[in-house]
Structures are given as C-alpha cells and as structure tokens.
Design goal:
It is built from six helices and no strands. The protein is an all-alpha fold and about 180 residues long. The longest helix has about 45 residues, at about 5-50.
C-alpha cells in the first residue's frame, strides 16, 4: 500500500532498529573488551606465578584466542550482523513493542498500525478503503514522535567501568611490575 505517512512511519521504525543494534554493539564492545582483558590478565598472572611448561602455555594461548573470538562474535559480531540484516533480526512489530515501552502514548497505536498494514490483502477488497483510511489516520497521528530517541547512547556510560577497570589494571601492572606481562 504505502501512504506517505505510513512510509515515513516505517522509515522511523527502521531508524529505531538500526540505532537499537548500534547501541547493542557499543554495550557489547564494552563488555567484550572487559572480558577479553580479564581473561588475558588471568592467564598472564597465572603463567607468571606457575611457570607452566610449553604444552600448557600453548593450551592457555589457544584457549585465550578462542575465548576472545567467542566474545567478539557474541557481543559484537551478532549485533553487527543484525544491523546489516543478516540472520534473525527484530521485526517491525517487535520494534513497535520496544518503542511502546518508551513512549506510553504510542504503545498500542504503532503496533496496531503495523498489524493493519499486514492485513491488507487482495482478498479483503470490501474492507480495503476502511483499513487504508485507518492506517493513514494512525500513521499521521504517530509522525510527531521520533522513535529513535528511545535509544540513548549515553545510557552505556555505566558499562564503561567493565572495560576501564581491567585496562587500568593492565596499565598499573605494566608500570609497577612489567615483568609480569
């Protein structure tokens, strides 16, 4: 179908979805960096005090590489793939539910509008005009709300500590006892 207001509405929902995944990538990067550095620190300190043989050091090295790879895939790779619409990503209806949690005045209106559009088929020609008018009216009422503002990148600030603390410990060890690293 595609009235101008409905098209604008879908564009806004798509912008929200992109910003949603970018936010997940930022949060995942902070978690991922923190976890990777913690694993690295644990292995380095363990090796420093235990003085493992070559076989066990090799095992630890590949274990660290595997762990970092899994962390990168889980916290950064998967949201990045979803950002570019690979794999299972959130639908417009799922995004409408998330948006509705942030904007109570939009809660059911957006979801109902998207569901009405999905109901438009050639089989229900007798109701087509009424459904189109309803979609147009609901889309027009929703165009004043900027959905992407529901995602605030500044909400990731509390997660900075998960990356900053382990990195600070690495720098402290580098200056206090560089032989450990």
């Amino acid at each position: 179908m595609g009235t101008q207001d409905y098209t604008r509405l879908i564009i806004q929902v798509d912008q929200f979805i992109r910003k949603y995944y970018k936010n997940q990538i930022i949060k995942g990067s902070l978690y991922g960096i923190g976890l990777a550095v913690v694993f690295y620190l644990a292995i380095v300190v363990l090796e420093f005090f235990a003085q493992f043989d070559v076989f066990f050091r090799t095992f630890l090295f590949y274990g660290l590489l595997s762990s970092v790879g899994i962390i990168l895939i889980r916290f950064i790779g998967i949201p990045l793939a979803k950002l570019y619409k690979y794999g299972n990503f959130i639908t417009h209806q799922q995004a409408a539910v998330i948006i509705g949690e942030h904007f109570p005045e939009v809660k059911d209106k957006l979801l109902n509008t998207l569901q009405l559009e999905d109901q438009l088929t050639p089989e229900n020609q007798s109701e087509l005009g009424l459904v189109k008018a309803s979609i147009e009216q609901k889309s027009s009422n929703l165009k004043s709300v900027l959905f992407s503002s529901a995602i605030d990148f500044n909400s990731n600030r509390p997660y900075v500590k998960y990356a900053a603390i382990p990195i600070s410990i690495v720098f402290f060890i580098l200056f206090a006892a560089p032989s450990v690293i």
